[in-house]
TrEMBL record, chain A:
InterPro entries: AAA+_ATPase, ABC_transporter-like_ATP-bd, ABC_transporter-like_CS, ABC_transporter_ATP-bind, P-loop_NTPase. The keyword Transport applies. Transmembrane segments: none annotated. SUPFAM superfamilies: P-loop containing nucleoside triphosphate hydrolases. Residues 22-254 form the ABC transporter domain. Gene3D superfamilies: P-loop containing nucleotide triphosphate hydrolases. SMART domains: AAA (SM00382). Keywords: ATP-binding, Nucleotide-binding, Transport. This is NitT/TauT family transport system ATP-binding protein. Belongs to the ABC transporter superfamily. GO terms for molecular function: ATP binding; ATP hydrolysis activity.
UniProtKB/TrEMBL annotation, chain B:
The chain crosses the membrane at residues 27-44, 87-106, 113-137, 143-161, 197-220, 240-262. This is NitT/TauT family transport system permease protein. GO terms for cellular component: plasma membrane. It is found in: Cell membrane. One of its GO terms (biological process) is transmembrane transport. InterPro entries: MetI-like, MetI-like_sf.
Amino acid sequence: MLAVEQTIQADPVPPPQRDLAASLQGASVRFGRFTALEDITLDIDCGAFYTILGPSGCGKSTLLRLVSDLIPAASGDVSIFGKTTEQARLAREFAFVFQDATLLPWRSALKNVELPLEIGRSRGIDIPAGNRSPRELLELVGLKGREDAMPHELSGGMRQRVAIARALVCQPKLLLMDEPFGALDEMTRDRLNLQLLDIWRETGTTILFVTHSIAEAVFLGEKVVMLRAHPGRLREVVDIDLPAPRTIKQRDSQEFNRYCGYLRDLLETC
Amino acid sequence: MAVVEEIPNVADDVEAQEVAAARKEKITAIGVPLGTALGLLLLWEAGVTLFGVPTYIAPAPSDVAVAFVEKFPILMQNFWPTLFESVAGFAVGNIAAILIAVAFVHSRHVERAFFPIAVFINTIPILAIAPILVLIFGPGITAKVVIAALICFFPTLVNMVRGLQSVSDQALELARILSASRSEVFWKMRLPSSLPFLFSALKISATTSVIGAIVGEWVGADLGLGALIIESTFNFNSPLLYATVFMSSGLSVAMFAAVSIAERLVVRW
């Protein structure tokens, strides 16, 4: 509060702005004649946890791929921390966690986490090394002692945790996650959800998390971005006003179920 | 205290049983094929003696063994050139195949232009092309190396192209997000993921390179296992012929084993 007042006093002309991690202004994505996303206008607040929900084929993954510069916008604007997506990619402002852990099978867990630090080094690209070493990151995701394990020796949940550690190694300000726990069993998924919330609090990174599970979206997200299909459009951004830190117990609460019910109704009309 | 002592005892017993079972399994795994081979050799020996088959038509295993020991210096003298031709052909053919596979993966135009030619060369029977190559390169060692290389080339080319393309779409997306260059994608992703495919091909060419060298020697050579096969056939020296055949297959097995060991050291995932 004090800081805000000071800035206003120092320079009273511009209105106090929200810090934005990402901003989409009327962005559309087309694959040939097929429109995957149409006219998406969405501001992503810095440090917040967003979950993205929607019927299948609504372009949830496309939205992440648009933000991460994997696919270009056909029209409209996408900026990340005020930069273009390409500039942000080159500066390693964001990291991506895929549904499949996508570990290189010939590298140990530690070597996989170190991969982002190796790529680009020979070309003299300035790689932002995080304040945590790869070893510390493996400890953060609960894999201390498994540094030398090969991916085939790890369970699905462990592999995904290695992938998360790898994503964090350049200390990204924005973490994009595309159904990272979709292929895991429910118990593992619950545990990783809690772990992810811990990591989010500890690193202060902004998270965009795609899921097809309503409960997961409500449990993790401060805001749920609901998309509709054919073509993919923004339906509604729902604030989830549940007390933090979130606990598994909250899932039985009336409020939690009220949010789930609301989102389910919304999904049906999408 | 007693309980504490009992538990490891039980565990030891179970472990000992498992070790014994594993050992028994191993003995059967080696013993059964070995016993079968020995049985067949005995049957062969008995058959030849019983029916009085002349040695020049089918020598008894004991005759072959005698020839092997008596003619060992000659066999070794002919073994070394064939070994050299096989190994050199193996190296040349596979290196060429790997380099061309890399070019194919990096340029679709190169693949379109040269893949049909590679298929065409592969369809020419090696026995038909061997005399042509001996005419071109002369009766020396070069023609044999080229024939051995040619026979290695195609399986490695096809497997290596598949291996280099076996990187998953998500891994390529990861590379893109990390702004990896083409050479980084190649060295850190494509090449390592191609290694299991490459070794499958190398195992095939380890044995076929020996065949290539021997076929080359058939067409025209004074030294080498292929030349010895021709010579002993013309002289009706069947025991030496059989000994040479065993020597040739021994060479193939040794090359195959060397590639298998290399694979186990390199591909550890």
